[in-house]
Amino acid sequence: MTDRSPPLSPGLKAALDYGPLFAFLAVFLLYRDRTVTWGGETYPGLIVATLVFVPLTLLANAVLWAKTRTLSVMQLVTLAIVVIFGGLTVWLNDARFIKMKPTIIYLVLAGLLGLGLALRRNWLGVAMGEMVPLAPEGWRKLTQRLVVLFLALAVLNEIVWRTQSDTTWVLFKTVGLIVLTIGFFAANMPLIRRYALPEDDSR
Q: Where are the transmembrane segments (predicted)?
């Protein structure tokens, strides 16, 4: 018999998933027209927001680990990219790194899922199986669609940050990407229902 941690409450899970992101948005909106001078260096609002976002993301993952004793490969990869690119953003005082972060994350996730498909490994099922138990064919089709989504979001992020204002990009990153992701899963509900396993078969 395995010793499993109790599931997170919906409120705590939402706070851990989205708290750092919306803190990033709030700090940016507060400081977007101001600068902060620290250690003789002047930092614009986007850098200040990043300085808040990175430690909050680390804290959220630490709480998640303490509560569940598990972090998925995708969560670890995302955390590593956040720390590296967020750290470079603050260290070099260059917002291009934080703007490229979503592109790198989506390309890495698309690559991992694509590699899983090539190796016939159900890595998406390992990450999401408890939330959405599906038959193998359902996981394969959903993985294929997610690869396309991640590649499209990587391209879209590059277009937005290179052509739009900081404010537009921050809103796209914090609100737009969430809406697009929710829309993707809503559009794929027919597939999920078609391949969903009965509760007894998903254990």
A: 12-31, 43-66, 72-92, 104-123, 143-161, 168-187
